[in-house]
Amino acid sequence: DLENAAAASLFDDRASWPASGNLDIEGFTYGTFGGDSPPDSADRLQWLRLQAPGYRPQPYMELADALKQSGRSEGAIEVLIAQRIAQRHSGRMSFPARMWNLLLDSTIGYGYRPLRALWWIGGFVLLGTILFERGYRAGVMTPTDAAAFESYARNGKPPAHYPHFNAFVYSLENFLPVVDLRLGNHWHPNVYHRIRHNRSDAAERNLVGKTRIGTLLRWYLWFHILAGWVITPLLFAGLSGLIRAE
After folding, report:
1. pLDDT tens by residue, 3-58
2. Which of 117, 123, 142 has the alpha carbon at shortest distance from 192?
3. How many CA atoms lie within 13 A of 48 on its CB side?
4. How far apart are CA 125 and CA 166, in angstroms?
5. Calpha distance 44→38 (Å, rounded)
6. 183-207 confidence digits (pLDDT tens)
7. Which residues lie across from 142 on neighbouring strands?
């Protein structure tokens, strides 16, 4: 029981640790670890788990400070992230707050791992590239301009002056907010028509199913755009330190 105790330095080892549920360190301050005390964040997080059930932020904050003072900045970050995860699991947060906590965890590591968002951005752009390219090949990605649509329906390609479709550029432009690569407004998933050449009876019978592809692709496009408006600002907020709270 070290509740509200204070020490300049903590000397311990695993053999001295109590059984699970028997550690009380709420309010305990200790500065640094001395001697052969386990200094790794993984070991120390296991130490914190020996406390009685319940969410207590102070032991996490004290541990992070002690690790930082000993030059283990990366370990301190791991502890601060674990503290936010424990807060989410505590049951003290409302459902929207838990969802926001989970979003920050998975995308930018609560601001401590902002570059994690690049994996999400790359994943969405790659997925969009695959889906929009398949939509283009299925004939449901069509020009938005009426004259270009007529040319595309008649010849299988838009006029020479019209931006030709590129699935990667289209996916990237629609995901990144405010980015205008001069393609996103010129092509859209078509819910009502599918461009078909050498029409056959089989193609005619598949018309309803093919237009449903356009509907699903349009729904995905909306989701793709919204995801970009969420993840990209989080990336810059994490890089600037606006979200990180220590």
Report:
1. 999 999 999 999 999 999 999 999 999 988 988 899 899 999 999 999 999 999 99
2. 142
3. 26
4. 12
5. 7
6. 999 999 998 877 765 555 444 434 4
7. 188
Tokens of 37: 């005390």
Helical axes 116-138 vs 207-240, angle rounded to 10°: 160
Q: Quote the CA–CA distance of 141 and 127 in Å, as a whole number.
A: 16
Angle between helices 41-48 and 73-89 (to 10 degrees): 30
Radius of gyration of the chain (CA): 27
> At 208, phi and psi to the nearest 5?
-60, -45
Residue 71 phi, psi dihedral angles, 5° rounding: 85, 10
51 pairs with which residues across the strands? 23
pTM of the model as a whole: 0.82
DSSP label of 39? -
Residue in the block written with tokens 């496009």: 221
In this structure, which amino acid lies at residue 114?
P
Extract the tokens encoding 13: 């080892």
Report the distance separating Cα 213 and Cα 219, nearest Å: 10
The interaxial angle of helices 57-69 and 73-89, nearest 10 deg, is 170
